[in-house]
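The aim of this short unit is practical: by the end, you should be able to scan a pair of folded records and say something sensible about each. We start with the first protein, listed as its amino acid sequence and then its structure tokens.
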Amino acid sequence: MAQLQVAIVPVTSFQQNCAIIWDVDTMQAAVFDPGGNVDRIMSMVRKLKVKVETIFLTHGHIDHAGGAMDLKDVLNVPIVGPHKDDEMLLSGIEDQAKMFEVAAPVRNAIPDQWLEEGDTVSIGGNKFQIFHCPGHAPGHVVFFCEESQFAHVGDVLFAGGIGRTDLPGGNHADLISSIKDKLLPLGDDIVFICGHGADSTFGHERQTNPFLVQ
């Protein structure tokens, strides 16, 4: 991670980990999953003195995408991701707000670009490979930087847990397959950050996560 730095900004009542990731040489940055509290996110952007070039979305749930359009308006940068299978979730963020009784105003999100399995995106000179990992949400994607041995997994995998699958479009079997078939083979030493809670490594989760060692 020497070339990349990460700052976590907890947002919304869900305490979602909005991540600002930047290249230390160029100070080029991306904001991942701005679920809300855009003023708080922008305060951190200014404090870090980074140049945000992209907003990346891992999936379309309100706590990850509820502030995306407002942040886009402030920064004038594109929204990229997730996979198109989350289009229904993103176009229904305002309905999600009613479902979860979220009082803060939110807007349906319209990405400028969808992501597909095998696509690559960059932050500065750091390339991230895209994995389509459904289960928590149909269009969930994971961002993996091989050079830095680092991944942003959104709500697919947590330290000691996995994403919930009882929401519309969720599927437990698909989620476990996404983790075991796509993420864990990347290597035990991969450090990941996730949508909620602490970071971990794939190796630690493979050996200790109760959902993976059954």
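Turning to the second protein, read its sequence before its tokens, just as you did above.
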Amino acid sequence: MKEKSKFIESIFFPALFLLVIWGVKVAENLFGFRLGTLGIYPLTVNGIPGILFSPLIHGDYSHLFTNSGPLLVLGATLFYFYRVIAFRLLALAWLMTGIWVWFGAREAWHIGSSGLIYAMASFLFFSGFIRRSVELIAISLVIVFLYGGMIWGIFPLRDGISWESHLMGGIAGFVLAVYYKDYGPQRKKYSWEYEEDDPETGEDETAHVVDNQAYDQVDSRTKKGADQ
């Protein structure tokens, strides 16, 4: 029951985000306006709002549909395994990708949430190996299996595709994986890792722990007697 509740919580925010971006596209079509100019246009004042708004805007339903699946899967995975820092990671990935695109992309309107997708995929992939966690490395391998083909998206191979958003998102995910390596889930330590001998003395390190605990107990009783 606990795992079921955790899964529901993990999928809630990604599903809510999908609802928002689909609502934006439906509203565009219903009321006949276009929000493409709220995207990122590099090195222009008019392009600055796109740092915040571009992930919410998509060119057409095909573009939106293509991004929806990865957003839901990667978002749910991020919130399930990195729940403590998930919101922080998403906010930073959003801003870092947008700012870097504004500074370094070609002159064009850059829209869509694919930069955020690349950031999440990159974070989930690198974080598992950086943390050396068996469970998280398994997630990394699943990401490769499901979305390994995304690697080609960081190259300028197709017209009309913001490969710069993909590249900047991927870099942002890697940077965040390194920076937050000590936050969130960590590698499990097994019993034999605590019972290794000291390489300098050859003595069992756990013996020192027991001796120190015993000394503390004796010292505590001594102080208690003195107080009485």
